[in-house]
Write a structure and sequence with these properties.
Elements: E1 5-10, H1 14-21, E2 30-36, H2 40-49, E3 55-57, H3 60-67, E4 71-74, H4 83-90, E5 95-97, H5 105-118, E6 122-124, H6 132-141, E7 146-155, H7 164-168, H8 171-174, H9 177-180, H10 183-193, E8 196-204, E9 219-226, E10 231-238, E11 245-252, E12 255-260, E13 265-269, E14 275-278, H11 284-298, H12 308-328, E15 332-333
Bound molecules: nicotinamide-adenine-dinucleotide.
The site of nicotinamide-adenine-dinucleotide has 23 residues, from helix 1.
């Protein structure tokens, strides 16, 4: 691998802007060779953001064949996944992909199979795993038994249906709030407590008057059973104007950890009155991007904490199971999915 890793982007919207802003644009060991987006102006804005580096494309296949990146960032909304991954896997390229990796199991399983077959380096944008707060709680949990966790993403929801909020409120495009947004907490729950075996979910609908294209649930509660016997409950709400925010309470036999905010600051309570407080970082995307670029350069995992074939796939399975449970009112056993 040459000193500089040539990066190409498929999907160049808001989340790419954030990755660049938080540090990626200043990485000395990358070359921005291509920006692909269905909307040419969006790709042009990213090119502008890095001082005019890279070519603009509106077709992913053309971009991959002409720009020949060493690694690809797949930064698409849930409904747009599938074709881009097929193209990237066929070319055996390492890729970073934003969460959630897919809206359906078929896409996630097909991609995971290709990744495993070709032993590709992958990273999924579950940036929460890289936080000092999360690492500390993970460390403490190694010596304890997990008991339960409870949290989620609670707010009033979008007020205007423009930009991302247009696709976000459509169930067949975003997969719903649990699949699209609370997936960060689902992944955190798996990271801390391990694999999930059963999912049961209840949807709340018709709380507010909505336009006809608004098809996601107003809220949901998702009950998780972990393989180690612990339990979890995750709430998502976009219909409660007085908020609640992002939070996760983690209870183990001798520890209570309370994560709050998007930045996952934590307050940890231990026996004998011991208290540990760790604030969340502002520029967490830079940390996960560093791990991905280092891994591409090394040709092996150098610090990636969430991979497609394991973590992206499993979070998708949990979310798809929750969506199915909301419809069928049945408990879904993941191994029967
Ligand atoms: N990690 C995080 O905290 C975080 C935060 C925000 C968004 N995200 C995730 O990032 C993903 C993208 O979100 P966003 O906010 O950038 O959305 P966005 O709507 O701003 O950008 C998505 C872009 O993809 C383009 N696109 C759609 N289909 C395409 C295709 N087939 N080929 C090329 N371009 C295509 C659209 O034109 C759009 O510009 C979502 O899955 C979202 O959940 C993650």
């Amino acid at each position: 691998m040459p000193d500089k890793v040539k990066l190409g982007f498929i999907g160049s919207g808001g989340i790419v802007r954030s990755h660049l802003e938080q540090g990626l644009k200043d990485f000395k060991d990358v070359d921005f060779v291509a920006w692909c987006d269905l909307n040419e102006a969006t790709a042009a804005a990213r090119k502008e953001q890095v001082g005019g580096r890279g070519e603009i494309y509106t077709d992913a296949e053309e971009m991959l064949d002409k720009a020949r990146p060493d690694a690809v960032f797949i930064m698409l909304p849930p409904f747009a996944h599938g074709k881009a991954e097929d193209l990237v896997v066929a070319r055996k390229l390492p890729f970073f992909i934003e969460k959630p990796v897919a809206i359906d199991l078929e896409t996630a399983r097909r991609t995971a199979k290709g990744v495993t077959k070709h032993k590709l380096i992958t990273s999924v944008g579950y940036m929460t795993r890289y936080r000092a707060s999360v690492q500390r709680v993970l460390e403490i949990l190694k010596k304890q038994k997990p008991v339960y966790l409870h949290g989620g993403w609670v707010g009033g929801g979008p007020q205007v249906y423009e930009g991302i909020w247009r696709w976000w409120v459509q169930k067949d495009k975003s997969g719903g709030q649990f699949l699209e947004q609370t997936t960060h907490t689902t992944d955190l729950a798996r990271y801390l407590f391990g694999d999930v075996t059963h999912v049961y979910a209840v949807a709340v609908r018709d709380r507010k008057k909505r336009p006809s294209f608004y098809t996601i649930e107003d809220a949901s509660m998702v009950q998780l059973t972990f393989a180690n016997g612990a339990a979890g409950n995750l709430v998502s709400s976009c219909s409660t104007s007085q908020g609640g925010g992002v939070r996760l309470e983690v209870q183990a036999t001798d520890m209570r950890a309370m994560f709050t905010g998007w930045e996952q600051s934590v307050e940890i309570q231990m026996p004998d009155g011991e208290r540990i407080t760790i604030p969340g970082e502002d520029n967490i995307f830079a940390k996960e991007d560093r791990a991905f670029v280092d891994s591409v350069k090394a040709g092996k995992n150098k610090g990636i904490l969430a991979t497609y074939e394991e973590d992206g796939l499993k979070a998708t399975e949990i979310a798809v199971a929750a969506n199915r449970s909301m419809e069928t009112r049945q408990v879904i056993e993941l191994k029967k999915l």
